[in-house]
């Protein structure tokens, strides 16, 4: 009976979203406050119903209720409790329910905490959010019901996909979905602004916190997924340009451009048309990622579903929301008035340059990801677009962008002085040159581009520090006043500096781990030793071991440095009993920011086994940099100016920024 209650809660939530679609929209268009007032409570009640539905499905998993088809296909009574819980979203139906839960949660947040918004803007925004929620609730109920029953329940389930039985998959999907779905609010704000003709600096400030929140979680979600693939799949790589990886990376690139574009719009009331278009494109790319993962057009370790019928439904939703929003944009955007003017050399100009390279990079990833699919669908020809294409297209676009990053914050608004900005960055430039020379001295001339990459990363990081020093002016005002100015900096200043520093840190990790890693692949017998970068890796032998729902062959290795034992590592090969599916469990020793990485291959008999040993210098900086970027986003969200909202624009500004009333 509880399962039926969960299903009924979803049906009722869908009915409420239909109310949310039409009533507040009509109220916003007719300035009827009673109708507009319907939106907040309905959005909150919809969230409560979907939350109840999600709780019911979770209870079915925790209790191993094998009368539910979804539980049969993705759970097992012997599975550890943690993976029973994470198994709720480790499948198509459950993950879509989580997707919808986060979607209506964002709507509820606007309903509860959007009191500083104009009533008509909040009502129409929630109405647009209701349209998106209704579409995906209908998708769940019509094609992906997580509460489908079976007549004769089996005694045991089929177990969760073994590669999903990992702590990383307890964290990665929720983080990623908050990022994906969070951009739905910026989309809803953009559509509401186009409908109402409310597009000005105040709108940009209202949108920025939601964009920052989504961008923060998407950054963490991508980083967590990268680290999970790194240690779980046993390949030793942290990014593979997999189409589904790209599907999450494209909204991140567009969202980064949106953040910077919204700043220009807020400060100078410029780039209005472009900012709204980016808000539409960012969420559209999130929807595209959902389609790729769940349509069956891709075969990937990340893909959830292979049912073409579901793919057609999502494609229809994709066409409706993207096509409808772009049609509205094409109708309303030409009516927008020109915002503030600025010189090419200015902070606005730097942010425009940032947008140019980010959108070009996003386009390169888009083409590389979708071209093989389009070619296969139209001609039947199958091609593979891999790392060489992306490295040759994406990489060169990032170099000028990273070179320009430190200049943006030190340039003045409206009209800047490039020479004066460079003078403020002399120390950063000098440090970057020193690091290039040092890297050449340390590694030699065999890898010419790598030292330049190290210098570029240091340039970005040192530029972020220079930005804070420039704001504080400690050398001009003294240490005491400088410290007071430091603690008084707005959250957005710290957020920008931390985000840029984190990008530099991630670039440094990428360059060093890619260019200077050492690898040995060898068949080892007990007693054999591999020497790598000062480490002696001795294979002591392998032994079987049994887990709660798997068996594994565990290799034991002793790691010595200079004859002294520094650690012992136990990589393994597992076979999960229910699915008879093997997985590789790597073993990792972290020293400083570098890692020694071991994974087992095939057994060769007589105790011999294939072993991969990697030394990856500074690789952890890749993920530490992402965490620092996310901390920067949190600092920006804490900025008081974003909490209190933008002041009401003057009559002249309002006239320039608004669309003509219809």
List the helices and strands and how they pair.
Elements: H1 2-30, H2 33-36, H3 39-62, H4 69-74, H5 81-86, H6 92-113, H7 119-143, H8 167-196, H9 201-232, H10 243-268, H11 272-294, H12 308-332, H13 347-379, H14 387-404, H15 407-410, H16 418-424, H17 426-443, H18 449-472, H19 474-477, H20 479-487, H21 491-515, E1 518-524, E2 529-532, E3 535-546, E4 550-561, E5 564-569, E6 572-576, E7 581-585, E8 587-591, E9 594-605, E10 608-616, H22 621-637, H23 640-644, H24 651-657
Helix pairs in contact: 1-3, 1-7, 3-6, 6-7, 6-8, 7-8, 7-12, 8-9, 8-11, 9-10, 9-22, 10-11, 10-13, 11-12, 13-14, 17-18, 18-21, 21-22
How does this structure look, described?
- The chain has 662 residues and is of the alpha+beta class.
- It is built from 24 helices and ten strands.
- The strands form two sheets. Strands 2, 3, 4, 5, 6 and 7 form a six-stranded antiparallel sheet that branches. A four-stranded antiparallel sheet has the order 1-10-9-8.
- Strand 4 (550-561) and strand 5 form a beta hairpin.
- Helix 6 runs antiparallel to helix 7 (119-143) and helix 8 (167-196) packs antiparallel against helix 9 (201-232).
- 50% of the residues are buried.
- Mean pLDDT is 87; it is low at 646-662.
- How many distinct beta strands? 10
- How much of the sequence is in beta strands? 5-15%
Based on Cα principal axes, name the global outline. globular
The share of residues in helices is: 55-70%
Q: Report the major sheet.
A: 6 strands, antiparallel
**What is the straight-line distance between the termini?**
51 Å
Query: What structural category do the secondary elements indicate?
Result: alpha+beta
Q: What is the alpha-carbon Rg in Å?
A: 27 Å
Number of helices: 24
The multimeric state of the shown protein is: single chain
The stretches of 5 or more residues where confidence is low (pLDDT under 50) are: 646-662
- Roughly what is the average pLDDT, rounded to an integer? 87
């Amino acid at each position: 009976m509880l399962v039926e209650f969960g299903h009924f809660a979803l049906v009722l939530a869908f009915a409420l979203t239909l109310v949310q679609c039409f009533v507040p929209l009509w109220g916003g268009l007719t300035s009827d406050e009673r109708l507009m007032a319907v939106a907040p409570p309905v959005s909150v009640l919809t969230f409560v119903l979907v939350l109840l539905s999600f709780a019911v499905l979770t209870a079915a998993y925790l209790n191993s209720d094998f009368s539910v088809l979804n539980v049969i296909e993705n759970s097992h009574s012997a599975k550890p409790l943690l993976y029973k819980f994470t198994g709720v979203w480790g499948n198509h139906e459950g993950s879509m329910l989580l997707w919808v839960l986060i979607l209506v949660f964002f709507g509820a947040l606007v309903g509860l905490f959007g009191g500083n918004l104009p009533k008509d803007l909040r009502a129409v925004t929630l109405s647009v959010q209701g349209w998106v929620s209704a579409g995906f609730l209908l998708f769940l109920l019509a094609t992906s019901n997580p509460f489908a029953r079976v007549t004769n329940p089996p005694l045991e389930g089929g177990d969760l996909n073994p590669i999903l039985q990992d702590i990383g998959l307890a964290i990665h999907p929720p983080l990623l979905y908050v990022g994906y779905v969070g951009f739905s609010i910026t989309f809803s704000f953009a559509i509401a602004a186009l409908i109402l003709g409310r597009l000005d600096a105040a709108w940009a400030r209202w949108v920025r916190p939601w964009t920052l929140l989504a961008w923060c979680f998407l950054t963490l979600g991508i980083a967590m997924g990268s680290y999970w693939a790194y240690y779980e799949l046993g390949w030793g790589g942290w990014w593979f340009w997999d189409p589904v990886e790209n599907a999450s990376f494209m909204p991140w690139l567009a969202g980064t451009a949106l953040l910077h574009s919204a700043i220009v719009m807020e400060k100078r009331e410029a780039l209005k048309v472009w900012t709204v278009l980016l808000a539409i494109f960012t969420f559209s790319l999130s929807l595209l990622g959902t389609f790729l993962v769940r349509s069956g057009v891709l075969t990937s370790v990340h893909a959830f579903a292979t049912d073409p019928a579901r793919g057609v439904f999502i494609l229809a939703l994709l066409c409706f929301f993207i096509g409808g929003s772009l049609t509205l944009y094409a109708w309303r955007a030409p009516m927008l008035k020109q915002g503030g003017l600025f010189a090419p050399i200015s902070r606005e100009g730097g942010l425009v340059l940032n947008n140019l390279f980010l959108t070009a990079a996003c386009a390169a990833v888009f083409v590389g990801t979708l071209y093989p699919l389009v070619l296969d669908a139209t001609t039947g020809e199958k091609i593979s677009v891999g790392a060489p294409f992306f490295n040759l297209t994406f990489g060169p676009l990032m170099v000028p962008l990273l070179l320009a990053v430190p200049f943006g914050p030190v340039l003045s608004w409206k009209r800047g002085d490039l020479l004066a900005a460079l003078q403020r960055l002399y120390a950063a430039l000098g440090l970057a040159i020193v690091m290039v020379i040092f890297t050449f001295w340390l590694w030699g001339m065999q890898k010419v581009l790598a030292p330049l990459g190290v210098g570029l990363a240091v340039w970005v990081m040192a530029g972020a520090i220079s930005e804070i020093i420039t704001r504080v002016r400690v050398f001009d005002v003294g240490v005491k006043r400088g410290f007071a100015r430091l603690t008084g900096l707005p959250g957005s200043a710290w957020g920008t500096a931390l985000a840029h520093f984190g990008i530099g840190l991630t670039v440094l990790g990428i360059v060093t781990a890619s260019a200077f890693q050492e690898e040995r692949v060898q068949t080892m017998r007990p007693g054999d030793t591999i020497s790598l970068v000062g480490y002696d890796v001795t294979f002591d032998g392998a032994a079987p071991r049994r887990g709660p729902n798997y068996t594994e062959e565990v290799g034991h290795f002793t790691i010595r440095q200079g004859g002294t034992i520094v650690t012992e590592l136990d990589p393994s090969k597992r076979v999960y009993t229910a699915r008879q599916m093997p997985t590789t469990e790597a073993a990792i020793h972290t020293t400083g920011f570098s890692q020694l990485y071991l994974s087992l291959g095939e057994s060769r008999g007589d105790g011999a086994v294939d072993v991969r040993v990697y030394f990856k210098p500074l690789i952890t900086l890749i993920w530490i940099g992402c965490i620092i970027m996310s901390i920067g986003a949190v600092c920006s969200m804490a900025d008081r100016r974003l909490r209190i909202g933008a002041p009401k624009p003057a009559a002249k500004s309002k006239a320039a920024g608004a669309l003509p009333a219809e």
